[in-house]
Design brief:
- By secondary structure, the protein is of the alpha/beta class.
- Helix content is 37%, strand content 23%.
- The chain contains 10 helices and 7 strands.
- It has helices at 2-8, 18-34, 46-58, 82-88, 101-110, 125-128, 147-154, 172-178, 180-185, 222-227, and strands spanning 70-74, 93-98, 119-122, 136-142, 158-167, 188-198, 201-210.
- It has a 7-stranded mixed sheet with strand order 3-2-1-4-5-7-6, with helices on both faces.
- α7 links the parallel β4 and β5 (158-167).
- α1 runs parallel beside α3 and α2 (18-34) packs across α3 (46-58).
Length: 230
């Protein structure tokens, strides 16, 4: 796992200290061990975890400035991309947000063992936004929903002047075109795309800048978002 991680960093123009690399790999070991009894990830090899979880997540450090920023990872699952980002940039202030209680309980258990500080919250994004509206400098999310739906869950949490970085893979530009109306209605503007390669496969993220406050009706209840996306 560590060899694969370190070998993949130069292509992303990233470096980690030995301590950061060791912490990431310890997190990966704990993930794979727990995965034997709980469905945390479909990736079951150390090399796969290094490439498809760690390097894929760390690549976002090139897409935005995370240092000293308040960051929320919406739909973080087993902690991606948020935990690797926090290990790679300890200066950020991270909130991990997901509605699946067992996964969040696991993160609350293991992160202190790794000396990784994060606010771990079990809640739906649309409910969390009611009390934490426009509270974060940055929002990140990976493979949670199509962008026209995801934007309504994420942009209300972002401060005006902040950014939402959505990891969408090969369909990034297609989904962004589909979501343009939603992004504009929610106070966002597409600032650009960040394309990168991990394990010889192309990856992509869209960077959305928050240029206006999100109107009060948003986010709606998830059933309404899903039934009638913006």
């Amino acid at each position: 796992m560590k060899n694969t991680l370190l070998a993949g960093l130069p292509a992303l123009n990233l470096t980690l200290s030995q301590q950061q690399a060791d912490t990431l790999c310890r997190f990966g070991d704990l993930l794979l061990e727990k995965n034997k009894v709980m469905n945390l990830t479909a990736i079951k090899t150390p090399e796969g975890v290094a490439e498809l979880h760690f390097l894929d997540s760390l690549a976002l450090l090139n897409a935005a400035d995370f240092a000293e920023k308040t960051v929320v990872d919406v739909g973080c699952g087993a902690g991606f991309p948020g935990v690797p980002l926090k290990i790679g940039c300890p200066e950020m202030h991270l909130t991990l947000l997901d509605s699946l209680g067992k996964r969040m309980d696991w993160l609350r258990e293991v992160l202190p063992q790794l000396s990784v500080e994060a606010n771990v919250v079990t809640a739906r994004a649309e409910d969390y936004a009611k009390e934490h509206r426009e509270s974060f400098d940055l929002c990140v999310s990976r493979a949670v929903a199509r962008l026209n739906i995801l934007a309504e869950l994420c942009l209300p949490l972002v401060k005006v002047g902040g950014r939402f970085v959505a990891m969408k893979g090969a369909l990034t530009r297609e989904e962004t075109e589909e979501a343009k109306t939603a992004i504009a209605a929610l106070g966002g503007r597409v600032a650009g795309f960040y394309d990168y390669t991990v394990a010889d496969a192309g990856h992509s993220a869209v960077v959305i800048e928050k240029v206006r406050p999100t109107p009060p009706p948003y986010p709606r209840d998830f059933a309404k978002i899903k039934k009638k996306p913006l």
